[in-house]
Amino acid sequence: MLSIYDAVLADGQSCLELLDAAALLWRLHLEGSDQHERWQALADRWPARVAEPFYAFNDMHAVMSYVGAGRIGEADKLVAEREAYVTRSRPGVTNHAMTLRVGLPVCRAIVAFGRGDHDAVVDLLWPIRHRIAEFGGSHAQRDAVQRTLLESALRAGRRDLARVLVSERISLRPCSPYNWLKQAALADAVGDGAAAAVARVRAGDLARTGGAAGTVGPVE
Description:
220 residues; mainly alpha; 2 domains; 0% strand; globular
């Protein structure tokens, strides 16, 4: 994954490349991978792109980049700017409504994740998890938000919610190794070592074979 990042995205300058770069590094960040230098370089490219409120989806990825780079103050500043933005009525401005309904809760959740406040992440993302598609973007980019919710549910010990989220993911995409690894993590959390082992074997088999037929939805 990092070889793809370095070859294709590391020097990207277009907004689309920055979005893909942030989404990829964030997935690694959720799994505990420290990519400090890559995050710093990416975070440096965002300020000019989000100087004005143009697209809430861009704001989300900028906040991911700031948090990934450990620049929480910059993430807080962007969130505060968007909070001020939504206080002013802008009839007919799509981004205004998107920022209010989806953008700000997601950005606040990402900052909370950076601070290790996983209960806050769950409280912010659970109510809007079915609205994420309003952002647009690719399935993989939006799935970074859903993975954040699941990871925080696991870390916060919110096992009932985590069970719902994992079950949904496996139902929609049973060929995803990631989904089975999260099933294993949940089984570990409830002390079911046998179920965890079975899920890890399933994940390993799928990783070796590149998955199998049976995808019925976009969740990865």
